[in-house]
Write a structure and sequence with these properties.
3-stranded mixed β-sheet; 134 residues; 7 strands; mainly beta
């Protein structure tokens, strides 16, 4: 009888704890910046793709630069990531496509559920044809 009294509350707690969903840790990585040409003029319409590296599943975020050459790309992941590749390409084929790696510091301890890592960058795309800026 004593075991039955202990068993039922214990069973209830076990079932209740399995129904509660734990909050997952998320890591948001952001690259924002400006794309310019060699004479420091902003470039509009450049395709910017942020790719997750070292992964079998391809995760990416794509943006196009605005009239001021600005862009914003981000990825939110459930595990920390150290390296990302950003691909800059011109759909009009006027400027050379360029790849750049961005490195983020991996946190040593999980202190917050949602961590944000941000990098600001200015990218200068060279022309596909030789240009004398002077």
């Amino acid at each position: 009888m004593c075991c039955k009294k202990l068993f039922l509350p214990l069973l209830f707690l076990l079932i209740l704890s399995s129904c509660i969903k734990r909050e997952d840790y998320t890591y948001t990585y952001v690259v924002e910046g400006v794309v310019k040409n060699i004479v420091n003029m902003p470039l509009e319409g450049i395709k910017v793709i942020m790719l997750k590296t070292y992964s079998s599943s391809l995760e990416a975020d794509t943006a196009y630069t605005d009239s001021e050459g600005k862009y914003f790309v981000s990825l939110t992941l459930s595990s920390p990531q150290r390296v990302f590749v950003v691909d800059y390409s011109d759909p009009n084929l006027k400027y050379r496509d360029t790849l750049r790696q961005f490195y983020y510091e991996i946190p040593r301890e999980k202190t917050e559920l949602n961590l944000l890592f941000k990098v600001s960058d200015t990218m200068v795309l060279p022309s596909r044809t030789p240009v004398n800026p002077f």
